[in-house]
Each structure stands twice: as C-alpha cells, then as structure tokens.
Fold these 2 entries.
Entry 1:
Amino acid sequence: EVQLVQSGAEVKKPGESLKISCKGSGYNFISYWIAWVRQMPGKGLEWMGIIYPGDSDTRYSPSFQGQVTISADRSISTAYLQWSSLKASDTAMYYCVRRGVGWDFDLWGRGTLVTVSS
Amino acid sequence: QSVLTQPPSVSGAPGQRVTISCTGSSSNIGAGYDVHWYQQVPGTAPKLLIYGNSNRPSGVPDRISGSKSGTSASLAITGLQAEDEADYYCQSYDSSLSGSVFGAGTKVTVL
C-alpha cells in the first residue's frame, strides 16, 4: 500500500527541541518531493517547505525559513521536520505530503499533533 | 491573509449545485500555474480532490469538477450530498514566494 506514516503526537514545553518523522512506503521514496504542511487549531493549511529525498534539495516558505529544519534519510525512506526551540505558537497539526507530477499533493500522512505548553 | 482568496463558506440543499471560487494573481494562477483542490472532513487529513485545474483522481465522483480562467479557478459540486459537508482548499504555486500557496479554505454546509 502506498502511504506516508507519521510519528505519534508530542507534548513539549517551550524551549524544548523536537524532531518528527514521516516514513514513505509502497513507492519509490527518493523520486518524489515530500512537503510539510501546518494546520493550527481551527485554521487553514500552510505550506512550510519541501525536500527531494533523492539529493536532499530543500526549499522553505519565507514564513518558516529559519524556524524549522527539513531533512530526509533516503536509506530508510523517511523525512523529518525539526525545531531547535519550540514556542507555544508551534502548537498545530503537521502533515507530511507527497508532491505529485505537478505541484499537487497527492498523498497525505495522517498528521502529527504537536502541543507546546508550559 | 492568504495569497489565494476563497469565500469563507457556501451552503446548499441536498441535490443542489454549489461553487467555490479561488482568486489569485499574476504570480500564481494568472502566471499559468495549475490549481489543485482538497477536501478536508473535520478530524481527518486533507484529500486531493482535483489536480491540474480539472482532473479527478481515481475514486472522486464526476459530480465534482474544477475549472480555471485568468487569475481565478472554481470548484463545482453538483447533486450535493450530506457527505460533501467539509472544508475545501485551493492550492497553487507562486513564483514570487517560490513555493506552494493555499487558500484560506471554504466550509461547505449541506442544509
């Protein structure tokens, strides 16, 4: 089955670091871009950035540049999203998504809920 | 404020037709970049509904259609059903941001 499996929900304190993961299976992981999309509580979708696992070419939305780091380990078909110092405003659902032939996102993970609270 | 503008909500009775607009600019839709649409049922991940302006992935019924003209795009749902009640998002590429952009979403309510 073609799928993206994301790591489980996280509860963290402000200032802590965090790395969440997204494992692809059922397709050639290194041949498709993987993006991360944020959805804050009760809000819409925001594109954060994207990585090509084949060569780790990475692009960021200006809104998220410097705030997060996107990486990938092609040997285990896994992409990552990490923070070095979380803020309460990072509380959100984070989706990893596969970019299709165009700039459409044709495969979505189920999301990782990150809660940052003191 | 989103780069792509959608109405916050639309509604219709079962069986009726509703349309959702998505208005962009010369750096995204107007530049010729494709528009894609997603459906998000509350509590679940979004799902691709229309790609490349008007193409339906396998499994999406043909009562759902998309179109694009100039700096705008539209999603139409005919024969509205209770299961269509969800949030709908348009998405495109923006050359000034060098990345993807989403509309703020439209909530469809079936009366």
Entry 2:
Amino acid sequence: EIVMTQSPATLSVSPGERATLSCRASQSLSSNLAWYQQKPGQTPRLLIYGASTRATGIPARFSGSGSGTEFTLTISSLQSEDLAVYYCQHYNDWLITFGQGTRLEIK
Amino acid sequence: EVQLVQSGAEVKKPGESLKISCKASGYSFNSYWIGWARQISGKGLEWMGVIYPGDSDVRYRSSFQGQVTISADKSITIAYLKWSSLKASDTGMYFCARLSDWRNAGRGPIPKGGFDYWGQGSLVTVSS
C-alpha cells in the first residue's frame, strides 16, 4: 500500500498571501493524484485531479503541480473561505490512500 | 444534476449488523465506480473500497477486506456498505463518492481520476 505523507500538519497564512501544501508518496504515482478540500462540517470537495487539472468550478487561485512522488497544492491568494483541511489522495491502483491532511488556518 | 444521498444516522450495539445506503441519481449508475470512505471523529479520511455497479466488481482496501461488504443494486441505483458484526471501533462518519474516470488496462480496470461527487455522510455510532 502506498503511504501518502502531507506537510505541514497545520499552516497559518494571512488573507491575500500564498499557501503551499506538500504531499509525498512512498512510490511513484506518475500523475495519479487528487487534492480535496474539506471545510468544517462539510463533505470533501475535489479540487485537483491528474496532479494539476482543476475540477469543474474550482477557482483559478487553486493550482496543483508535481509528478512521481512529490506534489504541491498552491493557493495563490488566500481567501477567508479557504479555511479547511486539505487532503491528497493517490489513485495509482485500487489500493487508494489519503494523506493525513493539512489544516489551513487564516491568520 | 448528479446526487448521492445517503441513509441517516444509526446507533447500534456491538455485535449487531448494519447496512447503510447511497442512492445515486442524475447519471448512468452502471458506468461509474462508487466507493466508500470512513472518517473517525473529524480526523483523516480512510478509503475502504469501491464497486462497479455494472458488473458488481468490488475492490477492497486490505484493512477492510472481510470486515465490511460493499454491494450495489443497479435496478434502484443504490450502493450499500454492510457490517455483519459491528465493533465500537466502527464508530465514525461514512461517505460514498463517485469515481470521475476509469480506464480498461491490459490487467483490468484502473482508476484515472478523483472522486467528484460525494454523499452527505452517514454517522454510525456503535456503543453498548
């Protein structure tokens, strides 16, 4: 089973600043990686798939990059509504796993 | 409009059985994989397994194999997650979700996208 490791565990960023979240896989995924946003009390929402493709309706301030074992989610100009936990997830095979999440706080 | 609507909260005792449901609408149910994920006490997400309703092909994460049963009834477009003997450690929120894309590879079907639609969650509480 592929282990997904996210860092940092918690990130505090001021509105308007850039937030950079990292995800590392224990083996190569090619680009078979998705990012999700889960706001307090809500269900997860798909942000990015294929490591860098924004899902339908996702604002352009969200971007994904990386391939192989190192991936990044960038929020270019943080808004207050971006307060959430962000998860990466691989789908390289059917033994799908999530990272443990990064909690994004607004300063 | 694609919708996944899950059954309501359940309170059960250890050893009891339970089947929760996920009603799909707004798309071709037979043609998309549906999976289940667990979230305990607001912590991280754990993937449990997926099913292809078209032919009932099921793939389990190893830690959930034998612990739960995933099934689907394509005549009524509902996916299920069943326990035959609940434990206190099964307490948590359970989500169904639709896989956005998949491909037939030489070795069988493979996922090719994220999970784009999610149910609202079913809270399961197991306590004596």
